[in-house]
Predict the structure.
Amino acid sequence: MKFLTTTALAMGLAALTSAAAFAEDTIKVAIIEPLSGPLAANGADILERFQFIFNRVNAAGGVLGGTTFEVIGIDNGWDVEKTAQAMQQAADQGVDFVINGIGPQHAAAVQGFIKKHNDRNPGNEMAFLVHSATDSKISNENCTFWQAVFDPTVEMKLQALVEGMKAEKFGSKVFMINPDFEFGHAVDEGFKSLVGAGETGLELVGAELMAPFGQVTDFTPLIARIQASGADVVLTGNFGPDLIGFIQAATDAGLKAKFATLYGDDPSSMGALGADRYIAADVMNPVEYNENDTGGVAVLEELNVEYREVIKSNYGTDRYRMMVDGLVAAIGKAGSAEPKDVMANIGGVEIASAGGTGYVRAEDHQLIIPYFVMGVDKEAKHTVLFKGDDKGFGWKTRYLVPAEDMAMATRCEMTDKP
Amino acid sequence: MNLSPPRLTLLAILAVFPVALPWIAPTNATLSIATQMLVWTVMALSYNISFGQTGLLSFCHAVFFGAGAFAASHAVNAAAGEGLLAGLPLWIMPIPAFAAGALTAFIYGLFLASRTGVAFVMITMALATLTVSTVDNFDSIFGGESGVSIDRAFQDSFLGLVSFGPQRQAYWLVLAWTALAAGLMWLLTRTAFGQLAAATRENEERVRFSGQSTYRIRLVAMVLAGGFAGLAGALHAINIEQVSVEQFSLKTSAFAMFMCVIGGARVFYGPILGAVLLSALDKVLPGYTGSWPMYLGLVFCAVLIFSPDGLAGIGKGIAQAFRAPGARVQVLGRLLGRALAVAVLAFGTILAVEMATVLSSQEAMVVRDAVPVLGLSVDATSPTYWLLALALIAAGAWGAKHLVPPTKSAGAEVPHA
Amino acid sequence: MDVLPFVILNGALTGMLLFMLAAGLTLVYGLMGIINFAHASFYMLGAYLGYQFTVTLGFVPGLILAPAVLGLLGVAFRRLILFRIGIQDQVRQLLITFGAAMVVTEGVQMIWGRYAVAYHAPRAMLEPLFNLGGLDFPIYRFFILAVATGLFVAIYGLLRFSRVGLILTAAQARPQMVRAMGYDLDHIHDLVFGLGLAVAGLAGPMIGVYPVMAERIITLLFVVVVVGGLGSLIGALVVSLVLGLIDTAAVTYRISLEPVVNSLFGPQERGTFLFDIASINTTTFAPMLPYLLMLLVLLLRPRGLMGQRDL
């Protein structure tokens, strides 16, 4: 009797999962991000942003004369194996485009799966759109025809940051702290090679890797070492609890150093630290968009207002819109929404941005756009708002890096063009 | 064993159904879930060798699982390359994985086998935490955050027939190995060693007095458990084609433990029940609710308090009640009453949990007044629904308390120190 | 910069923080034989409650109410749940506290969301108390130190000199005898359990409030309790301080194997086995040390440093 119950249960569950989740005749997009676990906040936020932007496109008539996008979110629980399983789910539901970006390990897992899947299932291919480039290898050695990256690489961001620091005379002695995993290693090595090339005008007085993801709770010894090194700028790729604890400890101890960060613009960090600490740390951060500087682009002015109203958060990140625009443009160019055709046409697509026009480079499907280096501004007109909670301060542009400077060389050689 | 015709048909269905699954439900997602169920079945059964059979609650079991998974992954990558192992077929990989798991269990067992009870648990926790910290450091072997990925279809064909690329082929391979492993583990319970291990769980002093070395018994039990866990690890690697150090964590061991406790640690098929149910829920539920870990925790606590022998115990209790002389109608009535009370309690809890989750979530696009709960649309902001949820919980709890008798299952349930 | 005083100061602060959390756990185990896996989750609940009370009522009311609520919850937990499982069946007790830990942790995340909450100490407390070697030490950290020390003195005094304390200590060694003398152990156990959790509730808001706090710390707390000795408050204090000092020292004096490996084999490339060996340093090693200690203690001296009985 027990066995029978188990069997019945198993069959029932099998039937349940076979049911298709998607409607027919739409372009299916799956967003695979952590919706539970330590990064659930970031994942949920990104899912919401994409849903907002795709809804806008659908409301304006969709693509190819009326075809709409259908977007679902799949949780990977910040676990690489769950990402692989989520891809399996996506594949079975007939997803055309997978979007992912939080965590280099997950992007690598998605890319690995897509390559095997497309190989084993010709005609049913999927394409990968990366919204945050934290893994250098997927853009270089492991690049593939089936992906497009809509975020400057770590090297490009560092280049922008360095140019901003030079232009603003932000400091001269740099102490670098990065989280000890692939992304942190990339920042560490990237910056070291920039300094080594001798064009930064900066001196590296210390470089360390620390245990990531909230494992370090006491930053005081680290602050002591930074002080002893005589650094006047701290460069860090830390994010989330690693950044919050770090800046908190530094400002508490009265450390006389400015902060050049890569993830200082994360709203939850801003909220946890507060305006005073950010100002005390004089945070400088490179990002693709700052709503106090739209460059007069009409759609951005609209989005600034609309997003605030609907989502109760400020529209501080623009690369998701750039990705969707790129996708839509490629579909239009190809005349079809099949991943194969879209990826064949995505190279060369032009993207509007606040700093000027950018484009998707055909060589490696990499987004090349002008980049802003921002600084904290207590008098900002548009302050940072997150889920109805106004942080009381915002960002201003300190330096604008032109697109040509961002177009760094790539080691990508696409060998799998169909 | 009673081999009456109804039982035989039952067993026949159970044997045929898994094999026929790829034709009954051919979607990749279903097969992937089914393969996961098989992997967890082997894992849970292996966990029960140390837990249910020998009475050792271990939090480092996942280490053996991970050891097998990584051994298999490296072996596959080596076989796909040109070195020593080039050309080794995929289907043989669970064997080196078993060896890796068993060896790791042996090394750990040298430390573990000298203690039982709570001391044992603590040592496993310490070992597991140490292992995770250490392997985190060795990116060269364990691949860091990305882990190690493999391509199971690295050989273009096995016997000229299959490459194991498509999910259904991987499923059959895993099914074959699962059947073999489960069969071996079942045989183990029948051997003298199996009986001895069970005796150690019941009364350690007595076994020692009879001249057996309980240290050696526990060590052997751990090695076998570790070996099969390693085997499960290989099957996991074959299914997902991606392994990471996450597999060594306490969470993985805990999940295996949950399967044994909820399924029932005293009977051989208890962990199978637990594995099938929990791994299916773990795959399916997150699509419907964000609070799956909460439900799992609640069910776990409920089982521990009310039915320490797990689902298998409940099933046995029901079967016994029906066999006992007396009014069948009465028995049936009580059974239905209990089932109803539990259902009411469950419904109220789900209502409360889902409403709480939605209310506290901060996404602006989340709809708060039309929350989908079990097919109904519920307004999480309205006090009426909250009162309803609380009333249901109270009613269900009262009913459960008065209709479910206090549990005194035959013999001790879970081992004590 | 004079490093040694810095290491001692910082280490002591970290250690006392750990002690505040472990004190409740060791009391409960030593006197009741219950290993409470859910201790860290209750501490997390206390932290979030403290945050909530601070936001609605103020810092000081928060500091008083959070432990109070948690103490009551502790009594309820013991009566409703732990009671049902015989005191003899230790492993099953462990399991149910494990389940409770999961439920409480998930519950907290369900109610307060999965975001780190912005918990700020009152402005006045963030002023530096003094400056050591160019770094300010805010008053806040010493407030924590003061509270932890006061706690230790209070509990120790309670156990050693009060009537209740004497009964408790006796009940730990000879429970039947104490019952035979007419004392109601049940109420006493309620008191101990509630007190243990209340202390955790006090520690919670002081340390920082974020969703994964419980999982991170529970194993470390077990180390303190086991190595210090079950039920021994002084043992817990000593071990907490030692662990705090070792942790700070290891992170401050960063000694790694890199020079050794590089001199023997030359500089290594990332991703190779030798590179991994070279990158082993005291910072990565320090978190492992407590567990090594626990392992040694469990294998060689199960009663810990100052415990009364074996685990």
Notes: Chain B touches chain A through 56 residues (CB under 8 Å). Chain B is about 70% helix and 0% strand. Residues 177 and 335 of chain B are 38 Å apart (CA to CA).
